[in-house]
Write a structure and sequence with these properties.
With about 100 residues, this protein is mainly alpha-helical. The protein has one domain. It contains five helices and no strands.
Length: about 100
C-alpha cells in the first residue's frame, strides 16, 4: 500500500485548524466543570492533532481502510516526511 500524503494545506493552516479544534475540546471540558490542571496533559498538542487529522484524512481518502501496526508506522512516517516539523509529534508513536 502506498502511503503518499497529499499536502492539502500549509502547516500553518493545519495548525490553525488544529488549534481551533483543541480550543473546542478545552472549552467543552471547562463547561463540564473539569479542572484544567487535571485534563490539559491528556489533550493532544496542536502538532499531535495535526498528525492525527492528517492520518484520518488519509484513511478516509482510502475508503476507511484499517491499518495494521506496520501500516500505522508507515503512515506516520509518511506524514512526518510530508510535514517535517511534525516529526517530533510522531516520534513517541514510532517504533
Amino acid at each position: 500500500m502506498e502511503f503518499q500524503i497529499v499536502r492539502r494545506a500549509s502547516l500553518e493552516v493545519l495548525r490553525a485548524e488544529a488549534n481551533d479544534e483543541r480550543g473546542v475540546v478545552v472549552d467543552e471540558r471547562l463547561r463540564h466543570g473539569e479542572d484544567p490542571w487535571e485534563f490539559m496533559q491528556e489533550i493532544p498538542t496542536v502538532d499531535e492533532l495535526v498528525m492525527w487529522l492528517l492520518r484520518r484524512d488519509w484513511i478516509t481518502d482510502h475508503g476507511g481502510v484499517e491499518l495494521d501496526e506496520a501500516g500505522e508506522q508507515q503512515l506516520l512516517r509518511a506524514i512526518s516526511a510530508a510535514y517535517p516539523p511534525l516529526e517530533a509529534a510522531a516520534r513517541p508513536y514510532l517504533k
